[in-house]
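Lecture notes, part 5. Sequence design as translation. It can be helpful to think of inverse folding as translation between two languages: the language of shapes and the language of residues. The source text, in structure tokens, appears below.
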């Protein structure tokens, strides 16, 4: 893949809103890194991608265009959740990114899934630090170090009947984080609110890992998580906006596709993110990563634009 400017000869028509977006981005402090949870959406043509972009161009150049969109300072890498990315894939990604652009890469789901989804029995790879380091961390450190932000350990949802005791879960997480290389940053995303306990937060604090303040269908809203004592104890903060509580992924996708406009503005979430930015500022301008899914309001880049405007106003 080629290293790209904002637009290449294949995309001669610049987007008319880029100057305004660049002016807005210039008002956002450098320690705040907003961006999309992934990037391959044809509906973003004319917003993030050049007019007339083809599917093949999007697959080949989409990451580079997204990384150079003025309002994006991070990008989520979701593919790594389903299978580890090898060094060759990571080098291809790195070749598309500008210097210092850091991504939020998800950890391989094999080490963050409590039960084997096929058998329903205990997953032998759950919190397996050796497997995680061998399959994920070493390739990432060798091929993607400059672009590696916090690695997101997104736990798969656990059915109530299978849920471990919160204290036992915290102890297992403690052992897992304690066995990982300390040179990298880690952020844990829960999908069961029952596990969001003081014991869990204490474990994160011991290992300088972050709790992901998530917007997800079965978790408390970001503002409620922000109010929990100690939730911002890590040296950095990660916020992932995926889907509003009470909604369902497939229904949101059908309602919002092709993700080229805001369908359902979520003023509560916008206010929560502005409050989060203010809290990070009050804690010494703590680095804040925010990634946004299309399923939040209808179009991730347009939600990012609205969030940046709200955070700029909150920090002025």
């Amino acid at each position: 893949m080629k290293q790209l400017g904002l637009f290449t000869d294949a995309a001669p028509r610049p987007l008319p809103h880029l100057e305004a977006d660049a002016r807005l981005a210039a008002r956002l402090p450098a320690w705040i890194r907003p961006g999309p949870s992934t990037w391959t959406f044809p509906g973003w043509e004319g917003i993030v991608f050049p007019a007339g972009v083809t599917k093949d161009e999007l697959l080949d150049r989409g990451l580079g265009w997204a990384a150079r969109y003025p309002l994006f300072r991070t990008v989520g890498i979701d593919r790594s959740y389903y299978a580890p990315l090898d060094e060759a894939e990571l080098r291809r990604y790195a070749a598309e990114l500008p210097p210092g652009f850091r991504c939020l890469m998800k950890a391989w789901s094999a080490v963050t899934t409590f039960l084997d989804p096929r058998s329903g029995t205990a997953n032998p790879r759950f919190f397996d630090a050796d497997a995680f380091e061998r399959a994920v961390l070493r390739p990432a450190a060798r091929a993607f170090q400059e672009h590696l932000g916090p690695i997101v350990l997104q736990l798969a949802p656990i059915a109530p009947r299978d849920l471990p005791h919160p204290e036992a879960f915290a102890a297992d997480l403690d052992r897992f984080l304690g066995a990982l290389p300390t040179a990298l940053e880690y952020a844990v995303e829960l999908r069961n609110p029952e596990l969001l306990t003081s014991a869990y937060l204490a474990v994160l604090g011991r290992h300088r890992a972050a709790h992901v303040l998530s917007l997800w269908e079965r978790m408390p809203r970001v503002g409620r998580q922000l109010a929990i004592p100690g939730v911002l104890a890590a040296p950095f903060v990660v916020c992932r906006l995926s889907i509003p509580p009470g909604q369902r992924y497939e229904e949101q996708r059908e309602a919002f596709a092709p993700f080229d406009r805001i369908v359902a503005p979520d003023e509560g979430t916008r206010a929560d993110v502005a409050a989060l930015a203010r809290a990070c500022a009050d804690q010494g301008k703590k680095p804040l990563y925010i990634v946004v899914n299309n399923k939040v309001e209808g179009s991730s880049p347009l939600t990012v634009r609205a969030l940046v405007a709200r955070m700029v106003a909150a920090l002025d």
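The translated text above is only one of many valid answers, since several sequences can fold into similar shapes. Residues 1-12 have pLDDT under 50 and may be disordered.
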